[in-house]
Write a structure and sequence with these properties.
Radius of gyration: 20 Å
Strand content: 15-25%
Number of strands: 14
Order of helices and strands: HHHEHEHHEEHHHEEEEEEHEEEEH
Shape: globular
Largest sheet: 8 strands, mixed
Amino acid sequence: MVTSSVLYPRVESLSSSGINCIPKEYIRPQEELNNIGNVFEEVEKDGGPQVPTIDLMEIESEDKTVQDKCREKLVSAAKDWGVMHLVNHGIPGDLIDRVRKAGQAFFDLPIEEKEKHANDQASGNVQGYGSKLANNASGQLEWEDYFFHLIFPEDKRDLSVWPKTPNDYTKVTSEYARLLRSLATKILSVLSLGLGLEEGRLEKEVGGMEELLLQMKINYYPRCPQPELALGVEAHTDISALTFILHNMVPGLQLFYEGKWVTAKCVPNSIVMHIGDTVEILSNGKYKSILHRGLVNKEKVRISWAVFCEPPKEKIILKPLTELVTEAEPPLYPPRTFAQHLEHKLFRKTQDSLVPRKAD
């Protein structure tokens, strides 16, 4: 039995080594183990709350009543859930398939090849191939490897760290990034109007076309021999403004909604969208950044493509917008830069991840 993750710096290596028991660093605290179930059983459960699905085709409708109703649904989902499945989002299905195939092809490479793209978190070089380093007192690890890189704006990319295999990786990822950036503008416009603001207000507050950064993290969750003991990603809220997620149709995403973990179903041709802490703060808590986590399983590798839309780290002070603050509704969050908010969250982890956290 392997007892140290140091021997296996990549989770993929652990998974393929034939172990029957996972190293202790990957075992979650007892209070979490009480509610980690079999993801394939969880996703089949009927009844109970379900992540809302928003059909964006209706937002383009020439019928203003249809258009307004769609906007109301999206705003309602952002306030109630903070997460939704987007369908008819305008990004071609064949492009999404090519993005998935490109990411899969990179992770299909031998680990020695992937290591040529390894990041160096200790020196602050976070782009590239990596695995989670423990950043809490318990030294706990997550059952995933990943590839992280900035994909938009194009003039801020470092293509030297991008995968060279497959050879269309840069082309398809760049095309996806451009279309996703346009989708972000569309969503931010609807969310602005839903707060009674001018259409472009939230976009401006998070940096606009020049400064809003799109960071892609391809999460690779290998098969796990003891999935009831581990998590692919521990419970957290996203610090981004918005997060857009593709996946390979293997379930795993869970949301903490109304005091219970709800497993998201796999909706064909959809993009999952999260409201992040940044928009929660700007909206003074009207929009929700929901606590979520990722389960793993024994049978299937799960891959997700998360794109975090983030404001610049230092240039913008994040605080509730003036128009949304009154005597009756005082500011719920102190002013911080994005970097300060990240730092504030990073070292505030507790053992009890069952308690949902506000984006404070």
